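Students often ask why we bother encoding 3D structure as a string. The short answer is that it lets us treat folding as translation between two languages. Here is a chain of 497 residues written in the first language.
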Amino acid sequence: MAALLEAPLAATPDRLALIDEERRWTYRTLDDAVERTAAALVSIGAGPGSRIAWTLPNCAELPIGFLATQRIGAIWLGLNDALAEPERAALLRDAEATHHITTSPSPTIADRGVRLVRHDDWRALVEATTPGRPATDIDPHAPAAMAYTSGTTGRPKGVVHSQHNLLWPGLASLAERPVTPGERQGTPLAHTILNMLVLGPVSALVRRSTAVVLHSTRADELARDIARFAITRTTVVPTIVHDLVHRDGIDPGDLATLEHVVVGGAATSPSLRRAFFAKFGVRALAGYGLSEAPTGVVRESADEPIEDTLVGDPLAPVALRIVDEHGVEQAAGVDDEICVHATPTGEWAGCWSPMLGYWRQPDATAAALADDMLHTGDIGSLDPQGRLTVTGLLAELIVRGGANVVPAEVERTLLEHPDVADAAVFGLPDERLGERVVAAIIAAVADPDLDAIRAHCATRIAPYKVPDQIRIVDTFPRNAMGKVRKTALIDGLTEPQ
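And here it is in the second language, the structure alphabet:
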């Protein structure tokens, strides 16, 4: 990763590399900016192994800072600027951050030994610094970046990645789909999320195309920016797809340049993906991945019909296994834990590697990487052709009277009813059953018929999977990746209806 710009700098130094509103960098000027930033980091005491945290809105300083961090052998850590100060402080403490570049400084954090740099001061420092590449030996398999898991349940864990395994998502995308003339890649999702940084600007630079920093997830503003910057590739979450399809005033012509759209981060209903294709003429390809991989490992095929469940092929560098709690591999069609490992054959044989581990959590690391595989904690099955169907989260499995209920299956069934705009299913303790199935829904109509919704479910799923209760809410609490924070949802629910 430290040498990422060397090849395009030698071959096409004047090609446009990065766009942020009115600011432009060619590969030549981008390399200069990265060297200047690396020198500025060294000037404030950063070096190999330093944990450098960034809390900024989307801006060019994030990918430039990321590449500079790699050149000095330091560890990059993105912290979403939507985090509350106590959340941010807890992650900085856990990561033992040495530096924090932020628009939201906290004197309390600075008092704990973190070198705090305000964003405006940082930009001034970089501009005043003479470019110079630090003389640092880079180990491509040493810790290079951290990403805290979304924390939908339990305490977030710091996922540690090497420079080596942060390169493969972009390289795999090249194997899947070569660069097209005039290619421009941008995502509106927060670049402080390592997955989004890697899938957005970093992958664009790996592909030697043009990265565009996008600033808004609002459907109307995103559509405007896609048209303004002629974006051809993007990664979004289901809420953005929904808003682009259903919000008034979204001109399909604004998305006419899009050639490749990936939607991840949460379950996306087949009907929504079909509606997106009907309106915009381009598929929103569902993907499955996780921070520990990093990013996506399975992608829906654009050449096959949109199916009722997420079915996809593993990306070129990886292979999948379905194993039980004892590590025994399961037959095709059997649901159990999804595990990922490097493909053993072909040109990608042995290239892929998962996370190095969880920061300062050896037991959790050993469990996640047991048997030379990445144990995802998710449930799925493989068909005879090796395609994956993702069923749900092992951690969210509901055990009702001894029977297993996968929330994602019930959620998909609820979403098929016209009165339901969105749904989240979870288990609540029950003295007799162990757990009962409860659904929270966002209604698509003023007065939804809950009995009719239950009856709809009863014709499509087993009786024990039908929600015992359905509660109506106005909105779901979500994390930065668009996933419903079910713990917060449960805590905030009103009395049962």
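Translate back mentally: The domain at 397-492 is CATH 3.30.300.30 (GMP Synthetase; Chain A, domain 3). Keep this in mind for the problem set.
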